[in-house]
Every structure is written in C-alpha cells, then in structure tokens.
Design a protein that fits this description.
Elements: H1 2-10, H2 24-41, H3 43-50, H4 56-75, H5 79-98, H6 108-121, H7 128-146, H8 149-157, H9 160-222
C-alpha cells in the first residue's frame, strides 16, 4: 500500500525493518499522523483562496510538518521540531482569531482541531495542549473584554464569558476524553506485551526442563 510505503520511508533508518523496536509504535504514530495531517491542512488554503482570505499561516504550518518528517527520517528525532511547530501554530491561530472577532471568532474551532491532532499524534505529552488551549482561550477572552467587543456583540450572540466558558468546557471534555482513550490503549498494549513476555518465559522454562529431563534420560541409558 502506498501510504504504508510512505510511512516506512520517513521512519528512522534503524526502525524501517525492525517493527519490534521499543520506539517503533511511537514513531509510527507520529509519522502516519503527520502524513495524514499535511494534505488535510492544505484543504483550508483552497477554501480561503476562493473567498479571498489570507492563507499564509496554513502554508507555514504544512512546511513545518514536512520539516518534522525530514527530521525524523534523517535525525531520528521529532520532539524539537514538533515543539517548534506547536508554538508556531499557536501564534498563527491567535492571529486568525484576533483579526476575526476574538472570542466570538469562528477560527476558535481551529484550536479544537489542533487539540485533536496534538493528543492523537503525541501520546506522551499531547495532553498538555488541554492546558495551553485553556490559557490561549483565557487570553483571547481578556483581549475581547479589553477591546470592548463584549459590549458590541452581547445583544447579538451573548456575553464573551459565555463563549469563553463553552469553548473551555469543549476543550476539557474533548481533550480529556481523547487523552484517556490514548492512555487506555497504551496501557492495554503494555499488558499484551507483558503477557507475551510471560508466555515466552514460561515456554523457555518448559523447554529448559524438558531438555534437562532428556539429558538425564540419556545419562541413565548410557549407564
């Protein structure tokens, strides 16, 4: 399958033919998620160009994802480029939100989309995005109140506090649910590996005992 070949191509050299490598699954998830994310991210500029809206941020984000793939392939490392991509993404998203209505902006949905990608791609630290999203939402709410947008929009769509509260609850629910799902999957995978190791050890012991019995029988026959 073409997608599987692409994933293998961008995997670190020592893991391409070693699927039992301790970090194989970790890198496989990051690489496959990034490969899926790049074309999906590129869908947004197509729509934005059609309605004459700036789309530079999406191109930058896609370029950073490509750089992360190259870092994984050639350096066997993704943490630093992933962190840089995350920080750059927050700055890009905030700029979209700040110029399109602050806490009332439809672009806040991109924050939730980012949360999904962060938790799914980074099983170890992706859940930190729950707290960074809440901090960004808090700052956006503060800016909304300071600019007086709350008074302008209140009669039409409700208070800024309501929008802030709803988006915060969505972040907590969505992020918490995904993080728990990832944790249970990881825990289940560990249990399976432990059971497999236990079975292998039991088989080794059984073979060892059987070998000892056969050796003992041979010695008895020889005497």
């Amino acid at each position: 399958m073409l997608f599987d070949r692409l994933v293998t191509y961008f995997m670190p050299g020592e893991m391409r033919k070693d699927k039992i490598h301790p970090r194989y699954h970790e890198f496989h998830v990051v690489v496959s998620s990034t490969l899926i994310g790049i074309p999906l991210v590129c869908l947004f500029p197509v729509f934005l160009v059609l309605i004459d809206k700036p789309a530079t941020g999406y191109y930058i984000n896609a370029a950073l994802l490509v750089i992360m793939l190259l870092s994984i392939k050639h350096l066997g490392h993704y943490r630093i480029p992933m962190t840089i991509t995350a920080l750059a993404t927050y700055f890009i998203i905030y700029d979209w939100i700040a110029t399109s209505g602050q806490i009332y902006s439809p672009n806040i949905s991109v924050l939730h989309m980012y949360l999904l990608a962060a938790v799914w791609a980074d099983k170890k630290h992706g859940w930190y995005a729950i707290f960074t999203n809440l901090l960004v939402l808090g700052f956006i709410y503060y800016q909304t109140v300071q600019l007086g947008l709350d008074k302008q929009m209140h009669p039409i769509v409700g208070t800024a506090l309501y929008s802030f509260g709803i988006h915060s609850l969505i972040t907590i629910f969505f992020g918490g649910f995904l993080a728990y799902l990832q944790y249970t999957q990881h825990h289940t995978r560990q249990l399976i590996h432990q059971l497999q190791d236990k079975k292998i050890n039991l088989l080794d012991e059984a073979v060892k005992k059987r070998t000892e019995q056969l050796n003992s029988m041979r010695q008895t026959v020889a005497t």
